[in-house]
Here is the input.
Amino acid sequence: MVEFTGERVIPGQVDADLLNEHLARYTFAARLARGKRVLDLGCGAGYGTAELARYALSAVGADIAPEAVDFARANYRDSNLFFEQASCTALPHPVATFDLVVAFEVIEHLADWRELLSEARRLLAPSGQFIVSTPNKLYYTESRGREGANPFHVHEFEFDEFRAELEAVFPHVTLFLENHVEGVTFQPHHPGGTACASTVESRVDSADPVAGESHFFLAVCAHRPQIGSPTFVYIPRTANVLRERERHIALLETELATKNGWLEKALRDLAEFDRQHQQLLAVFRDQMQELEKSNQWAASLNAELNERSARIETLQEELAQEQESARQMAEGYQFQVNELEEDVQEKIGWARDAEARLDAEIADKKLALDALHRTETERDERTEWALGLQRQAQALEARLALYRGSRWVKLGRKIGLGPEPPAS
Here is the structure.
């Protein structure tokens, strides 16, 4: 379902004046579409393409929005009417395919709008015409007022810029000023539907048109010179201005009554709001007094906090100094410990050397002790042997003493007989 967004016109979803404003451009172009191959760029909902197809040999509507193309295909059907999803700046058609190309209220929506003009020129047959329209930037900005810029428009044109850009692409450009104006019609009425409406006379009071005050610009561009540019007046079937105004006035009166009701309610609400405001104001004053007390208390707390903060800073400085002193002391202790460790290692090395020497000496002394033991054993043996010899000597001494004391020996010595006993 395609919805009216404020930009894309959907028949049945917009008021008659807005729809007629857009249909007028297609009725203008329909006069040039008879028996031609027509392309409608940015066709939207497709109602304009269908209008052109009533007179054209064939009509193709192209739009980049898939939902718009689906709506057009579902609501407008004819043997010479076709719709396709495509970009207005890159269409799948060969050069010079169309005799008439239209682009109504499309160019202001494109950032690459110059590509639209180039693509239209590429697709246009040598004798073809390109019709393009866009809102007048000066009038459009003023008419929107507080609504601000149209968020759907990328680039809006003033008259001189629009003409210059078109003439830079097409050698022949005829510009028209489109305005939604009041008119008075006199149409014959014949009961039974026999009215003859084939002949229409119109009068447009002559006046110099002012481009800057116009609602829209519409240009007919071509490769070749064009003949004639008559004023075109479109009077739609629903264009009963007085009736539309009366309906509009009735609608405004209804809206006014509704708004008056809203205003009365708003006044009552305002009175109630004022009463509540006074109550709140009294509460506010009480709260302000409490707040003042709280502020004073908070100020005293802040002062105390500042004092404590200063004390904390002092303590932090003292702590930092003590930590630095402790660090230096620790470094001194560490240095002493390192020296002690070096001394201990040195003494451990000396002790190990001494132990090695002592082990060696002990080994030597063990050898000496073994030798001493052997010597003592040998001494004991020798002593025992010497004692044995001594006992033998004593025995011999005794025997010798006996021998010497023997009277036989003494007698023999006297007579010179027997051996001479040893002296010892």
